[in-house]
Amino acid sequence: MENFLNKLSVVLTALWVGGLWTMLMVTSVLFMKIPSNYIAGAIAGDMFAFVNYFGIFVSLYLIFFGCRRSGIRLLKESYFWIVLVMLVVVIVNYFGINSVLEALKIEALPKEVMESVFSDRYRTWHGIASIAYLLECVLGIFLVLKIR
């Protein structure tokens, strides 16, 4: 059973990190191919939501599996700290920064946010969210290397 759970953690990690990197490519294609930035953003937002929820699930699984396997020694393992930082980044980015972005979109109505007085603040917060997401992607590479 332990061997199965270990292999499951490797597979889930690969799916999560692969999904993170895939989203970078998919969003660029969405915005190039779909003429409306609003529609492309809405589709990308739904896809990011799925990746974020999956990331929360996988990171919690990895932490609980690591606790079961290593106990308190888990705090000395680098993969635990990578997972924990990734989990914090996901939560802050999705539930914090994304909420600010959504609020700016609502305040800008009936215009699109990039055509409103909120465009500078939106650009700034979107840049912060992008940096946090890129940090998550890079940490994911280290996680894949550590977990195997």
Write up this protein.
This protein is mainly alpha-helical and 148 residues long. The protein has one domain. Helices cover 85% and strands 0% of the residues. Helix 1 packs antiparallel against helix 2 and helix 3 packs antiparallel against helix 4.
C-alpha-based Rg, rounded: 18 Å
State which percent range the strand residues make up. under 5%
What would you call the shape?
elongated
Order of helices and strands: HHHH
- Total domains: 1
- How many beta strands in the DSSP annotation? 0
Helical content class: over 70%
Tell me about the largest β-sheet.
none
> Kindly, what is the distance between the CA atoms of the first and last residues, rounded to a whole number of angstroms?
17 Å
Which helices and strands occur, and which strands form pairs?
Blueprint: H1 2-33, H2 37-70, H3 78-108, H4 119-147
Helix pairs in contact: 1-2, 1-4, 2-3, 3-4
Question: What's a quick, concise take on this entry?
Answer:
This protein is mainly alpha-helical. It is built from four helices and no strands.
